[in-house]
Design goal:
Blueprint: H1 8-17, H2 23-30, H3 34-43, H4 53-66, H5 75-86, H6 91-102, H7 108-121, E1 125-127, E2 133-135, H8 168-171, H9 177-180
Antiparallel strand pairs: 1-2
Helix pairs in contact: 1-4, 2-3, 6-7
GO biological process, one term: transposition
Pfam families: HTH_38 (PF13936)
Region (Disordered): 44-69, 142-186
């Protein structure tokens, strides 16, 4: 079963059936997983410990309305960002510039997201000083992720210990003549 949110009708069925059926029976009748039903009942109980379909539907609507808004790039701001990037500013510097001079707060990841999306949809052509054609994302500096660390990754296998190699010159040296004329070595 793929995930779909509960509908208002299903919530009213849960409210009616929860009075005299078990969670497993409700789940079978609605063709849903029993954990979905038990979670829904647990979340939306009223003070009298009864499930309320109205309360559940209201909360579902408010959560949908509060969901992530599309990022705040309009066409005028996009043009301004493009010109700043053509001037060889990084997205971090573009954000700082917009905040300082235009009081626009924008996160650099929003600009990177726009540039990735823009690269997929259409190619911006930037004329460079040598009259060469470059796409806009190519004019960017390389962005290093702030979370990179010097620690090795946990999922990477550790490298095996390798004995240091002995230089060939130390192994293949002939024994000196002074060592050969000794009679015994103690």
């Amino acid at each position: 079963m793929s995930y779909t949110q509960l509908t208002q009708g299903e919530r009213y069925h849960i409210q009616y059936l929860s009075r005299h059926c078990t969670v497993t029976e409700i789940a079978k009748q609605l063709n849903r997983h029993k954990s979905t039903i038990s979670r829904e009942i647990r979340r939306h109980r009223t003070q009298g410990q009864q499930y309320s379909a109205e309360k559940a539907q209201r909360q579902s609507r408010t959560i949908k309305q509060r969901k992530r808004q599309p990022y705040k790039l309009d066409s005028q701001l996009i043009q301004h960002i493009d010109t700043l990037i053509r001037r060889k500013l990084s997205p971090e510097q573009v954000c700082a510039y917009l905040c300082k001079h235009h009081q626009i707060t924008l996160h650099h990841s929003t600009i990177y997201r726009y540039l990735r999306q823009d690269k997929k949809q259409r190619q911006h052509v930037v004329a460079t000083s040598q009259n060469m054609q470059q796409t806009l994302p190519q004019t960017l500096r390389q962005h290093m992720d702030q979370r990179q660390s010097t620690q090795p990754c946990r999922h990477r296998k550790p490298t095996r210990y390798r004995r240091p190699e002995i230089p060939v010159s130390a192994i293949g040296k002939p024994t000196p003549l002074s060592a050969k004329d000794r009679k015994a070595h103690y």
